[in-house]
Design goal:
mainly alpha
Length: 183
């Protein structure tokens, strides 16, 4: 993908997303690029996935889309992720499975996450504009290891969602077990 194509994506996102979400997206891209340093992650994959990770944040899924992402249908908080992978393919012409998986699993994680998936997941969770209970601990763990940061972030999600009566997606639990070596 060349510079002009990336700029077209940015302009469409700026037009489609609320300003707050667009600015979060730009900070996520910045954090993702920082997290790539010292890893063997494919920077192009991470860049595009981070740029598009919330592309469907304000979209309402169609019946056809809900059929494709039925596993996420009862978790409204995370449905924008698999919907975003569909939108990235249909509207932005992204067909690279690695990029689409980074987008699809950026809210839940999944067992055997790639380094690129972990980086996009974490960048979304700890970008500089994020302020929530536990974010500083996640940032500290991330400095030690990407894997430790992902695990701490997922544990934080479970703690938060449990205390607020929100449904926890099964992939989140499976990913925690995988990262702990319990699978």
């Amino acid at each position: 993908m060349n510079y002009a194509e990336v700029e077209q994506i940015k302009q469409k996102l700026k037009q489609d997303l609320p300003e707050r979400t667009f600015l979060h997206t730009l900070r996520t891209v910045q954090m993702a690029m920082e997290l790539c340093v010292g890893t063997n992650a494919n920077r192009d994959t991470v860049f595009l996935a981070a740029l598009l990770h919330d592309c469907a944040k304000k979209d309402v899924p169609t019946e056809e889309h809900l059929e494709k992402i039925s596993d996420f249908a009862d978790c409204s908080k995370v449905i924008h992720a698999p919907l975003g992978a569909i939108k990235a393919e249909e509207e932005f012409g992204i067909f690279d499975k690695k990029i689409l998986d980074c987008i699809r699993f950026h809210t839940t994680g999944r067992p055997k996450m790639s380094i690129e998936e972990m980086i996009v997941f974490l960048a979304d969770a700890i970008e500089d504009g994020r302020e929530y209970d536990g974010v500083e601990e996640i940032r500290k763990k991330t400095k030690i290891s990407i894997k430790d940061g992902v695990l701490k972030s997922l544990e934080n999600v479970v703690r938060f969602d449990s205390s607020n009566g929100n449904k926890i997606h099964h992939l989140t639990i499976e990913t925690i077990k995988d990262l702990k070596g319990e699978n």
